[in-house]
Amino acid sequence: MVSTRYFKTRNEAEVIFEIDPSDAESAAVVAESHGWTPRQMKRTRRGRGPFRLKVRVPRNSAVQFRYLLDGARWENDEAADAYWPNPLGSDNSVVFID
Questions:
Q1: Per-residue model confidence as pLDDT tens digits over 3-59
Q2: What is the CATH number of the domain that holds 61?
Q3: How far, in Å, CA of 69 to CA of 88, rounded?
Q4: pTM for the model
Q5: Are 54 and 16 within 8 A, CB to CB?
Q6: Could you give the C-alpha distances from 72 to 29, 76, 77, in angstroms and in order?
Q7: What residues contact 13, with CB distance under 8 A and at least 6 apart?
Q8: What is the pLDDT of residues 58-76, one digit of tens each?
Q9: What gap in Å lies between CA 57 and CA 1, rounded to an integer?
Q10: Do the Cβ atoms of 97 and 4 come closer than 8 Å?
């Protein structure tokens, strides 16, 4: 799940990435907004809940991303605003920031 929180006094938004794979030990967000470098997500609820990461991005932008589970398995977000093809023959999830 991906969601966005907007700030009234700043020209940026907070994107909250969340995924809850029951069979994964680790998760990372790999996004265009941080140079396609994996950013590790943390489990919520004392290690039993979903993985979550908050990132601030500029308003009026589109952020392409994918989840990397256990360092080997790629997943898209079913709540993404769109899916854009990538050069590797699959799709990236996209979230639009108004």
A1: 999 988 888 999 999 999 988 999 999 999 889 999 999 988 776 789 999 999 999
A2: 2.60.40.10
A3: 18
A4: 0.90
A5: yes
A6: 13, 14, 16
A7: 4, 5, 6, 7, 56, 57, 58, 59, 97, 98
A8: 999 999 999 999 999 999 9
A9: 17
A10: yes
Q: Which residue has the tokens 């999830």?
A: 93
Q: Which domain holds residue 13?
A: 2-97
Q: Which residues of 58-70 are buried (b: 16+ CB within 10 A; e: fewer)?
A: eeeeebbbbbbbe
Number of domains, the chain: 1
Q: Return the ∠ at Cα 13 (arms to 92 and 22), rounded to 5°.
A: 50
State the DSSP code for 70: T
Complete DSSP assignment for 56-68: EEESSEEEEEEEE
CB 32 within 8 A of CB 64: yes
Is the separation of the CB atoms in 1 and 95 below 8 Å? Answer: no
Structure tokens at 63: 């952020």
At 32, is the secondary structure helix, strand, or coil? helix
